[in-house]
Design goal:
5-stranded mixed beta sheet, 49% helix, Nitrilase/N-carbamoyl-D-aminoacid amidohydrolase, 2 domains, alpha/beta
Length: 487
């Protein structure tokens, strides 16, 4: 009995530890590539139940790095948090089960492709149904590795997600017992060529950047605040402090972005915000984008307001509000001078980012507000959208990490709130985006391809096939049936 249990316990412990440090709110990018490997190496060598339980526990325990965040999150309800953690573990278990069935059937290449396809298909389905979108996935763990991120320009972030799981699955498929040597070689050749092509494309794309750059700034008060009424004393004081900070910025700045819902205003009080910011905008010759919780004709919107020197302000209403009943959602783009406007949670979804790319936006300004601990993770979700779609991004976060990044996913400047200075400020010369990418033009083609691969894998796993050495030997708890069990 001990010989059966110890390898499973060791695999669970190893994968859980690697998931813990390789994913979550502060991941070590390299560990994400090997986190699934111990469980995947185990799966073809044990019974189906053991493989499923091991995979489920490994992923579940690995997400302990985010349990506290989920339990205390203001934007993710507890039932949704439990579904995210439990659902992710369940999907990883299902992917492992399909990998086991196909590798034991002597189909290592299909096993290698099908397991990450299951993962991407499930995440894509979640993205279509979740009111808060999808963020903090395996793709996000690679957000500070620009050469890997370039794949997103073709496949969207889904391709990065697929690749991170594909590599350990390929290693496990090649190492599975009973697989013919020719099949191992084919599988190894495919993954080697795929990784080589990805790296080549990544390095080439990183060398191709628009020479035109604009000096941008993100400015966030260090002390967090939410929707301060501009008509009250605290609001007037905060407006003046932002005006003074912007006035002290270096000359030549094209755009300054302030955080989400920095102020609250209605039709009567809005001039108390717009007029002082317009004056400093004219003095600096810069657009100012500010987050406002605005009341318009009796409806409340989470707004990004662009204040342009000498022109009427332009308002964008946040599309995605996480199902909040007290805030109306917008549905229109806003592109003053070709700069797209979005707000925080909008980056958890493909749109409006994709629509901005197709409309020709080369920069997107995003007022945001996070929960301190998730500041890195959410800022990198914005960075992924930039690479996917071919625009540069200015992300101003009042409780987290503000960044300026180019369309290749390189962070050019960043500033975290919570420091001793009254404002967190980042300034950089940001190259203009290079225009809509293949992913922006053709949308979600890759996750649909993954859905098709999943169906092919399930069908192949259900087909009778000559048993491999592993199935002929008879694993504990298994029959010697020629049909590979899926349940």
């Amino acid at each position: 009995m001990e010989t059966k249990v110890l390898p499973a316990v060791a695999a669970v412990a190893a994968s859980a530890a690697l998931f813990f440090f390789g994913t979550g709110l502060a991941p070590i990018a390299a560990l994400a590539w090997i986190a699934p490997l111990p469980v995947l190496l185990l799966a073809p060598r044990v019974g189906a139940t053991t493989a499923v339980v091991a995979a489920f526990l490994a992923y579940l325990l690995g997400t302990a790095n985010s349990w506290s965040y989920f339990l205390h999150s203001l934007s993710i309800p507890l039932p949704a948090a439990l579904l995210i953690v439990g659902g992710g573990a369940g999907v990883f278990a299902l992917a492992t089960l399909l990998f086991r069935a196909l590798s034991r059937a002597g189909r290592p290449l299909l096993a290698m492709l099908s397991a990450p396809a299951v993962w991407v298909t499930a995440l894509f389905a979640a993205s279509l149904t979740s009111p808060t979108g999808v963020v903090g996935t395996l793709a996000t763990t690679q957000a500070d590795v620009p050469v890997v991120l370039q794949l997103a320009a073709i496949t969207g972030s889904w391709g990065v997600e697929f690749l991170v799981l594909l590599v350990p699955t390929a290693v496990a498929a090649c190492a599975a017992p009973g697989v013919a040597t020719a099949a191992r070689l084919r599988t190894g050749a495919v993954i080697t060529l795929a990784v080589a092509a990805m790296l080549t494309y990544g390095f080439v794309r990183l060398s191709d950047v628009d020479d035109h750059a604009e000096r941008l700034a993100v400015v966030a008060a260090t002390e967090p605040h939410w929707a301060v009424d501009v008509a009250g004393p605290a609001g007037r004081l905060l407006v003046q402090s932002y005006v003074d900070e912007i006035a002290g910025l270096p000359d030549g700045i094209r755009m300054v972005v302030l955080p989400e819902a920095s102020f609250a205003a209605d039709e009567a009080s809005l001039p108390a915000l717009v007029e002082p910011l317009s004056q400093v905008a004219r003095a600096k010759g810069a657009d100012i984008v500010v987050g406002v919780l605005s009341t318009e004709n009796g409806h409340r919107f989470n707004t990004a307001l662009d204040i342009h020197p000498g022109q009427p302000s332009v308002a964008y209403h946040k599309w995605h509000n996480g199902g909040a009943s007290n805030v109306q959602s917008g549905h229109e783009l806003a592109m003053p001078d070709g700069i797209g406007l979005a707000v925080c949670m909008d980056v958890n979804f493909p749109n409006p980012s994709r629509d901005y790319a197709r409309a020709g936006a080369r920069f997107v300004a995003i007022p945001a507000s996070d929960e301190d601990v998730d500041g890195w993770q959410h800022s990198r979700a914005a960075l992924l959208r930039a690479v996917e779609n071919g625009f540069s991004v200015a992300w101003s976060d009042q409780r987290g990490l503000s960044i300026l990044a180019d369309s290749r996913g390189r962070v050019l400047a960043e500033a975290a709130t919570g420091g001793p200075a009254p404002f967190a400020v980042a300034i950089a010369d940001v190259p203009a985006g290079t225009g809509p990418t293949f992913a922006a033009r053709f949308g979600d083609w890759f996750p649909w391809l993954c859905a098709a691969l999943t169906l092919v894998g399930l069908a192949a796993a259900a087909v009778r096939r000559r048993p491999t050495a592993a199935t002929q030997s008879g694993q504990p708890g298994e029959t010697r049936s020629l049909r590979v069990p899926l349940r």
